[in-house]
Design a protein that fits this description.
Blueprint: H1 6-11, E1 46-50, E2 53-56, H2 57-77, H3 100-124, H4 131-148, H5 153-162, H6 167-187, H7 198-204, E3 206-214, H8 221-236, H9 241-248, E4 260-262, H10 269-276, E5 282-283, E6 288-289, E7 293-300, H11 309-331, E8 334-336, H12 338-375, H13 392-404
Antiparallel strand pairs: 1-2, 1-8, 3-4, 3-7, 5-7, 6-7
Helix pairs in contact: 2-3, 3-6, 3-11, 4-6, 7-11
């Protein structure tokens, strides 16, 4: 099989849950989806049951390799293939002392269960896959293929092949994701369990803008503080905050938007606490110092009908939905066929290791050929080979990281 290493990065792409396919048939099948896409042997191996509904090896693989991608890439860059056997190095106490393979496996099983119980809950509300869902999903799939595989169906199929899944599995999960989003919308309505009340939104979220004066090689702490105090003096004199941001502000994020809507943990803590201490339409009377510099923060009301409220309400509803999902999974009847899963994962691991070794051997042989040709005085161009660092798939992650570093809006 022609699995390209670049497919590894494709597994980690942002928004993988936007994948879906479109095959118009009339009937919803036993999985609760509309699809005539091709299945394969991974769709036939049952590895778990949730509330009496089968989960296949392909279901597991779909999420497992996505969850594992960043860990796998990290260790492969160090020449380590067996990432599953590496000790967890994060700060989450739940995973302390465990291997990455065990952690990713548990997370994947939990996610599979969530998909099933959410779809079953959606059915109680009469929310099912229909041709509108399939059509919307098809547009998302094409957009994703265009953006992440340069519109190349072969590259997309290589990705499926690398992850031991089928086009049918992709369609199934992406149609389910559409149904689950509908369920979230339904449960977020007034009187439903995920409704975000105005008091909850105001308790959890803050709407604010700020003037940031950076401390850097060109501006000392004293100079930055003096500028920040100038801003406060002008606010005291009745000048407009937006104009002062334009005149003094050094946060690139404020050039793209008029305010931030955030909750605890999404900003550096000093900034969050400084904003939280303000009342509506109040501003900092003393500049707030963070690792970025000095901030003059202006807090706005966050009530129904104002800009930013719907965004915050959506966050609150999503958090409530996540908690509801956890409760549904806890009360679900779940059975994992560990022996089947163990055997399948071992076989897949051996296959991947063999292919990766083959690639390394091929690269070494090409290098030897190049060296031999050079010794003969012959110039050999070995550049222009296939990009195996993920190509466009990693560019999005780099852009997100760069964007997250702008200004004071990012928590350190």
């Amino acid at each position: 099989m022609n699995r390209k290493l670049s497919a590894l990065a494709a597994v980690a792409m942002s928004g993988i849950l936007a994948l879906s396919g479109c095959h118009f048939v009339k009937d919803v099948n036993d999985d609760g989806v509309i699809s005539d896409a091709k299945s394969n042997k991974y769709d036939e191996t049952i590895v778990a049951e949730v509330n009496g509904q089968d989960l296949t090896l392909a279901d597991f693989n779909f999420m497992y390799y996505n969850n594992a991608a960043q860990i796998q890439q990290y260790y492969m860059m160090m020449g380590i293939v067996d990432w599953e056997d590496q000790d967890y190095v994060g700060d989450d106490e739940e995973y302390a002392g465990k291997k990455y393979g065990e952690i990713v496996r548990k997370v994947t099983v939990d996610q599979m269960s969530q998909f099933i119980v959410a779809q079953q809950k959606a059915k109680e509300y009469g929310i099912l896959v229909d041709e509108d869902v399939v059509e919307a999903a098809a547009k998302q799939k094409q957009s994703l293929i265009d953006q992440n595989f340069n519109g190349d169906e072969t590259e997309y199929n290589n990705y499926l092949d690398y992850c031991f899944i089928s086009d049918y599995t992709v369609e199934k999960y992406m149609q389910r994701s559409q149904v689950i989003m509908e369920l979230l919308d339904r449960l977020s309505q007034e009187g439903e369990i995920c409704e975000a009340t105005e008091s909850e939104v105001q308790a959890d979220y803050i709407k604010a803008s700020h003037v940031l004066i950076n401390i850097d090689d060109d501006t000392t702490d004293e100079q930055a503080l003096a500028k920040a105090n100038e801003v406060i003096a002008k606010l005291d004199a009745g000048e407009d905050m937006a104009k002062l941001i334009e005149e003094y502000g050094e946060d690139p994020g404020m050039e793209q938007q008029d305010y931030y809507v955030f909750t605890e943990g999404e900003m550096v803590d000093e900034f969050y606490q400084g904003a939280k201490a303000l009342g509506d339409n109040e501003y900092s009377k003393t500049p707030v110092r963070t690792s970025y510099g000095y901030h003059v923060i202006y807090r706005y009301p966050l009530t129904k009908g104002v800009d930013g409220y719907d965004e915050a309400a959506s966050y609150v509803s999503s958090q409530k939905f996540s908690k509801a999902m956890e409760q549904w999974v806890e009360t679900a009847s779940t059975k994992i066929h560990d022996d089947v899963l163990d055997e399948a994962l071992l076989a897949q691991k051996e296959e991947l290791a063999a292919e990766q070794q083959e690639m390394l051997d091929s690269a070494a042989a090409a290098q030897n050929d190049s060296s031999a040709a050079s010794d003969d005085g012959t110039s050999v161009d070995v550049s222009g080979g296939e990009d195996t660092n993920g190509g466009d798939m990693t560019a999005g992650a780099e852009d997100e990281a760069a964007a997250g570093a702008d200004g004071a809006e990012t928590a350190e």
